[in-house]
Amino acid sequence: MCEQLPHPPHRSRCESREKKIEPEVDKFLQELRERVQIGVVGGSDYSKIAEQLGEGNEVIDKFDYVFAENGTVQYKNGQLVAKQAIQNHLGEELLQELINFCLNYMALLKLPKKRGTFIEFRNGMLNISPIGRSCTLEERLEFSELDKKERIREKFVAALQREFAGKGLRFSRGGMISFDVFPEGWDKRYCLNILNDERFDAIHFFGNETTPGGNDYEIYDDPRTVGHSVQSPQDTVKRCQEIFFPERANES
């Protein structure tokens, strides 16, 4: 048996709305599910994953596994099986030090635009966005281009690494406007904890942020997975067809 973990579709946010999975990709994943068990793992909370992949609770029924917030919130066969809380792990003192540092840093950061929701508190992480997650698509793209030139997020993370060295925190970029802060070991490899007990022959992972510092890197590079670096949902479909439907390669 093989566990397939396709990465969620690339995000495109406009007025707080996530781009939905394209029908042909959705159809293929359901076809793939007839051959192997499939799961999805993302850094976002369940509501955002559901917004991308379906409607409401139907998503946990469309996949054998759904791992929200890097797997700190776990669903299996439509049921919630585990949920962690970052505040219990870090403690209130360290958590507030972290939040206060981020707020102070962003207060001094001069950008063309700032909006709202600069820190999003999740079960398994803090998501930090210098521009604010409530920005429009146009503002998101503008910030992304500026970030490529001025390395805003990279410098922010470097400051956090210096300030909180030895405190058991990890930082990873994801998407276009933010980065995640979470306890050591709470990256996407966290979802492998539940899969280890399932005794699959292989676990395939597909992701696009697979270089060091990206939020897919650790699970992509983990010896327990067969990692595949992809560029888009369509690329994921193509790779899955090659691996799991080899007979189609000979079809005219």
Automatic annotation (TrEMBL):
Cofactor names: Mg(2+)
Pathway membership, UniProt: Nucleotide-sugar biosynthesis; GDP-alpha-D-mannose biosynthesis; alpha-D-mannose 1-phosphate from D-fructose 6-phosphate: step 2/2
Enzyme type, top EC level: isomerase
Compartment(s): Cytoplasm
GO cellular component: cytosol
Biological process, per Gene Ontology: GDP-mannose biosynthetic process; mannose metabolic process; protein N-linked glycosylation
Keyword hit for Metal-binding: yes
Molecular function terms from GO: metal ion binding; phosphomannomutase activity
Binding-site residues, Mg(2+): 208, 220, 222, 225
Xref: InterPro entries: HAD-like_sf, HAD-SF_hydro_IIB, HAD_sf, PMM, PMM_cap
Binding site for alpha-D-mannose 1-phosphate: 122, 133, 140, 176, 178, 180
This protein's record includes keyword Magnesium: yes
Chief site of localization: cytoplasm
Alphabetized UniProt keyword annotations: Cytoplasm, Isomerase, Magnesium, Metal-binding
UniProt function note: Involved in the synthesis of the GDP-mannose and dolichol-phosphate-mannose required for a number of critical mannosyl transfer reactions.
Subunit structure: Homodimer.
Family, per entry: Belongs to the eukaryotic PMM family.
Protein's name according to its UniProt entry: Phosphomannomutase
Lineage per the UniProt record: Eukaryota, Metazoa, Chordata, Craniata, Vertebrata
